[in-house]
Amino acid sequence: MEENIFSHENEDSLNPEYNEQLRMENELLKLKIHAQYGGIPGSESSSNLPPEIENEFLKNVIAFEEQYHREHPPVKISTYLGNPVFKKSAELNDDEFEVESHRLAALMKSNCIFVDFIRERDDRFQYSFITEEFFDHETEFTVDIPGMMHCFIYEEFHPDHEMDIENRTEDFMQAWAKGDTEFANHYLASEFIQPDRIVLSLKELIIKLRRFFNSYRIIENFDYEILEIKFQLDPKNKPQGLGHAEGLVKYDAILESGERKSFEGPFKLYMALEYGWWSIVYFVMEGYN
Fold this sequence. Notes:
Strand content: 15-25%
Largest sheet: 4 strands, antiparallel
Order of helices and strands: HHHEHHEHEEHHHEEHEEEE
């Protein structure tokens, strides 16, 4: 018999209890990687591996990350910049602030460091954040290529949950207008709770959505307005929380026969925050529910 070089089966791997033990260990390893290193690129595909192979993969990831961080210890931004001294914004009059802010901008540019603010902030706000908080941040400067920028985003330090929920709502609405179900893989939770408390898997929900969109030839005249966004973070576990966005939506759905069906009414997206990402866990959409 020809040997299968991809076979990793042994007596242990055929034991259901051993496999269940490995799956539990794998979940703990994933949590450790998420907590310490921010997750694993391509982790969805790794979960399709046999538990024994996935366990080996996860342990290799941890070993690589531990070695990498030993070789590239983080340093403070201020240390990297040569420990510059800047007065606080409140201590500067307008003329002094203009001089200091230009000095700061020149220092950052010469060291190829850029801080972006997604929501518009005034110059003094940006100056205060950079000199009083960002300078104390530790990071790894592992690549030194002339002209390469080290980019940071203010909202990574102070998440703007209202803006994130608004962006997630806009992504959802744009996908709906196109009849696109691919958005579900990125913006919807892995499980979807129905009003009757039946839980759908993401795969089952995508099938339902495809049936809905396939019943129409095209969606036209799509328009919506967000009227309210609310969220609440878990006080005991702040990386987690619940939120929603609601408003009004209207659109025309054209049947294959050419018949036009018009929908107009409320929408509401219920969301949950995990690992810094707002996922949609349930939605009410005019014409669908």
